[in-house]
## 1
Amino acid sequence: MRFVDVAANLLDDMYEGHYNGKSSHPPDLDAVLERAWNAGLKKIIITAGSLADSKHALALSHRDERLFCTAGKVVAIGECGLDYDRLHFSSQTQQQACFREHFKLAQSFGLPMFLHSRAAADDFHATMVEHDACYGAGLVHSFTGTQAEAASLLAIPRLMIGVNGCSLKTDANVDVVAGLPSDRIMLETDCPWCEIRPTHAGFKFLQPSRLKPAPGAAALELASPNRARRGKRKKHDPAFMVKGRNEPASLRRVFQVVAGCRGLTTPEQELEFSEQLWHNTHRMFFAGDST
């Protein structure tokens, strides 16, 4: 199977070994990326939320032809949208004004939009409808909303929904994801956050016997998500994942949970679903790529 992680925060300080302002281990992004490629990922989209981050994302994307970004080696405009849980950073009025400016960029460059909506479903939907003529397509990433909110977004034909570990925390979340049309979903890790944890409702769908590692990845213990070897920060071994830090290789776990909650249990069903997800992602972000 082949995968694309459509949302990876690879610029985060954790991949430089810094946690909460303290240095815990040497930078290990190269090892993180190697695990991702060995886990079957073929492309990763690096997210950026500021001009400085955009420049760093561009520089990072130039290191490997499999890395892309939402500004620079550009496949989308964003991240943009509304987040009313973070009004201490920016007021509703400021957020709405900035959001509208992003539609001008999408229209000017003819690129899809990489979208964020949190605690702002009604205003977000209204803004998307209001600017319907200004964008060709969009991904609402890290979706954690209700069935009604999902239906509202899916009523806009050019929008797709991004799913990660945070989308699979509760039984209600899992029910929403299980009901999403297969041709309107993309997968992401939103690393270094949003890993799937034992307390999450979706965790029960992680079955080590079915999660086969890609060739050459056995040493990474990807086939054992319930007990994946994760070193503590201060006993860091770059050959293994860091406990509590998500990374792109974990996209295989997101896939297994999403497939499992949709009742896809055979290798043939999983392969067919993975190919649908691949084509969903390419149709929006890599339309000129023949792979």
Note: Residues 214-228 have pLDDT under 50 and may be disordered.
## 2
Amino acid sequence: MSEKRNHSAPHTTDPYTPEYLHTYNGDSLYAVAILFIVLVTVCVTLRFYARRMGNVTWGLDDSLVIPVDLSDGALGYHEAAVAASHPEKLVRRAKFILVAPLLYLNAVLFPKLAILATYLRIFTPSSYRKICWALVVLLVANWFTFTVACFKMCTPLAYLWNRTIVGGYCFDINLFYRWSAFPNIATDVAMLILPIPVVWKLHTSRNIKVGLTIMFATGSM
């Protein structure tokens, strides 16, 4: 489903006030990004430290969790302001529109595969293991499908950052972003619910069951 777009006229700053053009909220975006980079690094480090202290054998889930921890495009400014002062950065931003979902898809895939690998190591009932494998297949299929779609955003692809190409067009990128998140939300919910019945069937105290439920819920989120 695609829609042809007419070549738009160059951006004009006339309708915008100076206050609007100088609005900047990049600091909060950078702060959130840095916060989660630090949290992920700490959590991954603590995971390997705990496994080393417990002398736990290296597993597939340990390998899959490594990629989890692994451009200035005028972030935080209005597009009209960037077009007036640094129009070349809009080209960089357009290229980032291609890169961002690719990074997102990989950042989502590997942690979930690591969690499912942990479930497969823990769960013994065949029904739960089948659900885990079904989720693995779904996640990989979703990753492959949306990765291919990323390179089909525009025809030709260069039209994404060069709107002077005659005959170029793009599909609805905002709609693509929304729908690419939906399967990940669905699998989040499934992985959140999956271990709960197993945990509450364990022959142990209620406090331990609650603690295990919180641990699995935190991991799936």
Note: The chain has nine helices and two strands.
## 3
Amino acid sequence: MGSSLHPDKITLEDFSHYLNLYPTFLPPNIHSLETFRRDELPRTVAQRKKDGEAFLEKEEVVKLVEWKLKFGKFRPTLLPLVRSNAPSLVRNTTAKAFSLFTSQGLDGVKKAVAELSSLKGIGPATASLLLSVCEPAEVPFFGDEVFVWVMLGGKKGKIGYTAKEYSSFVEKVGEVTGRLGVTAEEVEKAGYAVVRGEGEVGEGKKGKKRKEGPEEAVEVEKGEPKRKRSTVEQEGKLEKKRKQTLLMAEEKPVPAASAPKREKRGKARPLSTGQQLVT
């Protein structure tokens, strides 16, 4: 990626060019969800805010997560976790998070992310997605591509997916919006197109794939017993190995059970005073 495309140096003309290219890099079969995420739901939330309180319904959160899974990495266990949240809990939690942001501005983003992360299946990145539909012009989605562009200058690197990291990201996006006179949503789109068009995302040093960060671990493991999760490709390989192991176990002859050793019998001991025999 050329230095002229660095977020600190990119011109408004080049920025607008990549912003216009954004739709061409979208994954297939996402366009209806993209319209919902970018247009329909923000209008709905804005109207609710005018009526007195901004919030999200459970099914709206589910659709946002469906968008996220098609837009980025697919994690099959994430959606069931999100669906396991009670509708009233989703509505109350999102209302509280939106009010924190509305009353405290960007200073309330960290608190709002923490509030949303109390829901099952919601980590900092998904929480940022929910916040972004409330204030698209000010709150950016914590996506891989835009983070790599804004925070790492388009270079490959590790993403931690922490709330602290997201706060720094929001501040940096604010610098870009202030310099170019654009919105946070436009930075998200342009950054996505720049990285997709000029370089790859998701690799660490020496071309190695980066490890999953807390965001992935939180979203996969919330509500489940804690255990390490690999990437989707690795999960497929592990599942294949498990099936092969089970097949091998079924084919092996089961050895005859050896007779249990007889215990040496001693003399019966009399029950002590007050001791009862439990049957």
Note: Confidence is low (pLDDT under 50) at residues 200-233, 250-279.
## 4
Amino acid sequence: MSGTSSVGGRGVYEAGDQRTVPDSEKNERERYKEGQPHSHLPNDSKDERSIANKLAREEKREKEPEPKSKEAAESQKDPTLPAKNHGNEPSKGAKIDAEIQAEEEEMLKKKGAWGSKK
């Protein structure tokens, strides 16, 4: 059929220069980043993992502790600290939270440690 084409010569349609790599060379080559950790996003809609694999992953996630960001941990200690670290003035709400936290700490110090009786 390629002989009846008027587009080009026979050499254009023949695969004389197209060769596949022999299997002996394929096994010797280094694999390109095969099986990298975290290569599957858990909520990827285009991921072709089976439902059983997705359910197994969710069961593992339920047992894992929720990772807290650095800023979330800082805001537990001092509500104004994340804004200060970014070079901003803390918001009015953060200032109020800091005042409330300081007042509660004072009240707890006045009451003492009620759990231990020494």
Note: DSSP finds six helices and no strands in the chain.
